[in-house]
From TrEMBL:
Superkingdom of the source species: Bacteria
Protein name from the UniProt record: Pimeloyl-ACP methyl ester carboxylesterase
Pfam families: Abhydrolase_1
InterPro entries (alphabetical): AB_hydrolase_1, AB_hydrolase_fold, Epox_hydrolase-like
MF annotations from Gene Ontology: catalytic activity
Amino acid sequence: MSGPAVPATLAEPAFLDLPDGRRMRYRLDAPCAGGTAADVVLMLHGIGCSLEDFDDQHALLRQRYRCLSVDLAGFGRSDRPAEPMSLVALARSALDVLDALGLTAPVHVVGNSLGGAVAMQLAAQAPERVRDLVLLDPAGFGRTVTWALRVLAVRPLGRRLLVPSLEATRRAQRGIFADPALVTEERVRRAHELSLRPHGTEVMVETADALGTFWGVRPGWRRRLVRALARTDLPVLVVWGERDRILPATHVRAVRRSLPRAQVHVLAGTGHMPQVERPERVAELAQRFWEGCAP
């Protein structure tokens, strides 16, 4: 499934200059109905990716919502944080974007992979800014992760593995999707361009080392974060691709144990990015969830 064509009216990405001098790249679409009073949906991508991973969701959700996607600090074309890479730094940068745009009311937060962990961290740091969470194949619920990310956590090996090449980028993209048709030359080209950024390798290695080891995702931050999220009592929807080769769908068992009130959906024949592979289904589940959470 290739997803809907992105309409020509989708807002162009823009840059924000933050008070500390950093630049953050974002896309903000005003809804076709509802104007500036409509609910805001903040969308956060995964490691090594960019806001374009949510273009289909902008196209599908902008009828009713103000859709805001962000290049996480250090990824895409956003500047890296001044401090070492961490979930706290990434969540703080996302909050900085909301503040700079004047979006101070609570928002719906959607996060994929690393972006899911950032979404949880944002909710733990500033629960008053979050209405609810939609987590798409999120990091944080299990130790098992693809070998490629485990190797990145060993810094000398990670730097060697991340020497940019089109073929390496193509292999990485093939690991993300269950449907090989989604590994288009356009997607490979965009991912390869991002890998050429001057700080790209260090950001990837630093993030992988902060969150994992050669043996898998570090348990300490996972347990602390999930406990902190549970204490917020925020509504949570989790969607997982059954054929995820990055973070396996078996992690949903931990979701059900630690967040028993969360809604959980496993999508058959779907890989690590359900918002790209099953865009209509993800948008449908998200809207139904938000409508059910409405006061």
